[in-house]
């Protein structure tokens, strides 16, 4: 389910950002990302997104990230390592999976980060999980 069609969208009233590779929705403490079909999310794209995060939340921002995998795309798992090393912006991540391929990819990505990554079966589950992170309470 697209975030804009979810009941949470109307409640959270996020700031919507369209980048060349996907839509991003900036909520109070977390971001929902929906990459476009067929994108290979590389380090250059990650740096563009980080710049936008800092522009919205400020330097030194600490947020959670929800990858709403409504489309098929690929990601360089090394991005997780670089992200932690160069920008300590993410507290934790949730990946909303819709098929077995997404589950396998999310399982692989978990191996590349020290941060918590939760695999979720719905946007509702992902949002509830990030909203209840102890860093936000």
Describe this structure in words.
The chain has helices at 7-12, 43-57, 78-86, 100-110, 123-131; strands at 15-19, 22-26, 30-35, 40-41, 63-68, 74-75, 90-96, 116-120. By secondary structure, the chain is an alpha/beta fold. The strands form two sheets. Strands 1-2-3-5-7-8 form a six-stranded mixed sheet, sandwiched between helices. Strand 2 (22-26) and strand 3 form a beta hairpin. The longest helix is centred in the middle third of the chain and has 15 residues, at 43-57. The model has no long low-confidence stretch (mean pLDDT 90).
The main pleated sheet reads as: 6 strands, mixed
Enumerate the spans where pLDDT stays under 50 for 5 or more consecutive residues. none
List SSEs in N-to-C order.
HEEEEHEEHEHEH
Shape assignment: globular
The helix count comes to 5
Backbone CA Rg: 14 Å
Strand element count = 8
**pLDDT averaged over residues:** 90
Distance between the termini: 27 Å
The order of strands across the largest sheet is: 1-2-3-5-7-8
Please state the structural category: alpha/beta
Task: Name the beta content range.
Answer: 25-35%
**Proportion in helices:** 25-40%
What attributes does this structure have?
137 residues; alpha/beta; 6-stranded mixed β-sheet; two-stranded parallel sheet; 28% strand
């Amino acid at each position: 389910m697209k975030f804009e069609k979810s009941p949470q969208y109307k409640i959270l009233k996020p700031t919507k950002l369209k980048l060349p590779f996907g839509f991003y929705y900036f909520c109070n403490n977390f971001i929902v990302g929906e990459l476009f079909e067929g994108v290979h999310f590389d380090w250059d794209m990650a740096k563009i997104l980080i710049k936008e995060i800092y522009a919205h939340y400020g330097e030194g921002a600490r947020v959670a990230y929800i990858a709403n995998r409504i489309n098929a795309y690929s990601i360089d798992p090394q991005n997780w390592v670089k992200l932690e090393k160069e920008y300590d912006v993410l507290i934790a991540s949730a990946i909303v999976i819709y098929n077995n391929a997404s589950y396998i990819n999310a399982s692989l990505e978990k191996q590349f980060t020290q941060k918590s990554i939760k695999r979720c079966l719905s946007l509702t589950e992902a949002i509830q999980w990030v909203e209840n992170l102890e860093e936000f309470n």
